[in-house]
Design brief:
The chain contains 2 helices and 4 strands; from the N terminus they run ββαβαβ. The protein is α+β, with helices and mostly antiparallel strands. It has one domain. The chain has a 4-stranded antiparallel beta sheet. The longest helix is centred in the middle third of the chain and has 14 residues. The chain is globular, with a radius of gyration of 13 Å. The relative contact order is 0.29.
Length: 98
């Protein structure tokens, strides 16, 4: 499982976010290969209406991580990534907001 910290920018077809507005986000991808995980994340985020993705940081979790310390949002995202392959958490404020 890879966890990426990224900037995502909504495209014109995004159902809930204004086009052109960048957001901080965390993306989890159920893949141990970094290049494959980035590709899966980019493809899925494009399908969801995100126009651009900038990868900032990457963490590769061990095969059976202890997730007991994760908060509920992160735990839900982890489970969704295990079930669906990719999950995304978008922070509610645009990047650079005070």
């Amino acid at each position: 499982m890879h966890i990426f910290r990224l900037f995502v920018t909504a495209g014109p077809s995004h159902p809930t976010h204004l086009a052109g507005v960048p957001f901080d986000a965390i993306c989890m991808v159920d893949s141990s290969d970094t290049d494959q995980a980035r590709h899966k994340a980019s493809d899925r985020l494009a399908e969801l209406g995100w126009a651009s993705v900038i990868f900032k940081d990457t963490i590769l979790l061990p095969p059976a991580p202890d997730v007991s310390g994760l908060n509920q949002v992160m735990l839900d995202a982890y489970r969704n990534a295990k079930d669906l392959g990719v999950s995304l958490i978008v922070y509610p404020e645009p990047s650079g907001a005070a």
